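Design request, tokens follow.
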């Protein structure tokens, strides 16, 4: 019988921070991990999970971590996404924002069709295809971990959901960083594209966006941090309350849809952001919100990753590899033949295609890195740095959540 070692919330917090520091140390000394911007919690978490697996195998003990911080950290991350969605920026994105959003929305559906279709063809649970679709690829590590907790329970009863989704999200993160630059370079050279000179001259008089000037720093103070924390706290309270009581709210024949708690929290964050903006009650500090979100996501992923059971992935390795290989090929073809063409076959469209590869397989930060690499080489694309963060960090999560709910309603044998 295995010896059980239980960690309380403080010991678990130490482990979570230790995972992040370990991941940072390893990335600093491994060029491949550094070049492709693999997150600290992914590297550290996988190493710790591997060590725990070996210790369990050779020394027969089981480590039980306190999970009380897990859900608040996850919800805080999605709230910060909502608090970053300023609808005033929609005017700057203009028509390109709408077109790109349509292209991305269609691809989310395509991604799940491919995942479920390939899984069905090779004779595995279609739920694995959904986890290897928009949940882990477009959604990333945060969305993967959020949905996997649902799939591990009834009526789906897929206990390996967390392990499968995290592996798929990690693979997608690397793949998105690898293919984004080459796709844009191919399009630029194939169609001999250049930045619009008139637009570039106009943009020289506009302030640089944070993603266009990534080294620019802004001061974070105790007072401003408390104000941002107040917004997050309100969104946590209201979002979890709505999620708990949504099914009991009836407005005539209308009933609030059943959505995961993190989706409601994200919606509340959006409302708080835009009510504050339009009423001039409070100006949301985007950089500070980003710091809170990144810290929450890192700690949450550190917990989720060091808790995964690596042994359960052995029998699933081949099906996962097949599904992900097809998904990468589809992403390349879609960005070249659909995203690029829908966005106007221009230089901006090529940069947007690189961004789509980044968050279509990995995450919005990967998209930013892809675009920065292209624009540093070929020239600026101001509109891409407006459109991609809005779509990749906010709108796509809403589309993704609705698409996943739609696929789960289909008559597949999940």
């Amino acid at each position: 019988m295995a010896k059980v070692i239980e960690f309380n919330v403080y010991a678990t917090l130490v482990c979570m921070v230790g995972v992040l520091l370990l991941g940072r140390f390893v990335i600093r000394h491994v060029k491949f991990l550094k070049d492709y911007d693999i997150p600290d919690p992914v590297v550290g978490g996988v190493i710790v999970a591997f060590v725990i697996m070996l210790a369990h195998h050779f020394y027969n003990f089981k480590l039980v971590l306190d999970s009380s911080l897990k859900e608040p950290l996850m919800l805080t991350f999605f709230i910060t996404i909502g608090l970053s969605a300023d609808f005033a920026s929609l005017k700057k994105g203009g028509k390109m924002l709408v077109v790109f959003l349509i292209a991305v929305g269609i691809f989310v559906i395509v991604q799940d069709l491919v995942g479920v279709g390939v899984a069905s063809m090779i004779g595995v649970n279609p739920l694995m295809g959904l986890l290897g679709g928009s949940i882990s690829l477009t959604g990333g590590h945060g969305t993967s971990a959020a949905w996997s907790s649902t799939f591990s329970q009834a009526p789906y009863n897929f206990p390996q959901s967390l392990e499968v989704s995290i592996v798929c999200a990690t693979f997608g993160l690397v793949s998105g960083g690898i293919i984004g630059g080459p796709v844009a370079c191919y399009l630029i050279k194939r169609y001999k594209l250049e930045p619009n000179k008139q637009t570039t001259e106009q943009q020289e008089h506009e302030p640089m966006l944070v993603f266009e000037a990534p080294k620019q720093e802004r001061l974070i103070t105790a007072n401003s941090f408390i104000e941002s924390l107040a917004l997050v706290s309100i969104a946590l309270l209201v979002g979890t309350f709505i999620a708990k009581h949504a099914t009991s709210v009836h407005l005539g024949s209308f009933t609030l849809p059943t959505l995961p708690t993190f989706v409601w929290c994200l919606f509340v964050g959006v409302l708080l952001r835009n009510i504050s903006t339009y009423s001039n009650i409070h100006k949301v500090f985007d950089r500070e919100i980003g710091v809170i979100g990144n810290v929450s996501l890192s700690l949450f992923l550190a917990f989720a990753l060091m808790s995964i059971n690596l042994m359960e992935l052995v029998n699933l390795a081949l099906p996962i590899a097949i599904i992900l290989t097809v998904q990468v090929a589809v992403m390349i073809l879609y960005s070249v033949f659909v995203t690029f063409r829908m966005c106007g076959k221009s230089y901006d469209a090529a940069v947007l295609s690189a961004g789509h590869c980044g968050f279509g397989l990995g995450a919005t930060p990967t998209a930013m890195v892809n675009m920065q690499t292209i624009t540093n080489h070929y020239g600026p694309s101001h509109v891409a740095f407006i459109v991609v963060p809005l779509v990749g960090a906010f709108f796509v999560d809403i589309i993704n959540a609705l698409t996943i709910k739609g696929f789960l309603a289909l008559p597949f044998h999940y």
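Comment from the thread starter after seeing the answer: thanks! The chain has 16 helices and four strands.
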